[in-house]
Write a structure and sequence with these properties.
By secondary structure, this protein is an alpha+beta fold. 46% of the residues lie in helices and 18% in strands. It has helices at 22-37, 44-53; strands at 2-5, 16-19, 55-56. The termini are close together.
């Protein structure tokens, strides 16, 4: 299982997404970015930060 804590990219956000694979976590993070942060698309630098922040749990 893998996870990403949004607060590692967006200070103050307590959102955490989980997935079996990096791809699952990236999809969940994109959905979180759209739903919570109003992002229609995720810029490349944010994608890189999310990928760097994914950890195993």
């Amino acid at each position: 299982m893998k996870q990403f804590a949004c607060g590692s990219v967006v200070p103050g956000c307590d959102g955490v997404v989980l997935g079996e694979t990096v791809e699952d976590v990236m999809a969940a993070a994109a959905a979180h970015a759209a739903d919570v942060h109003g992002m229609d698309s995720v810029p490349d630098d944010v994608v890189a930060a999310i990928q760097a922040g994914i950890t195993d749990v």
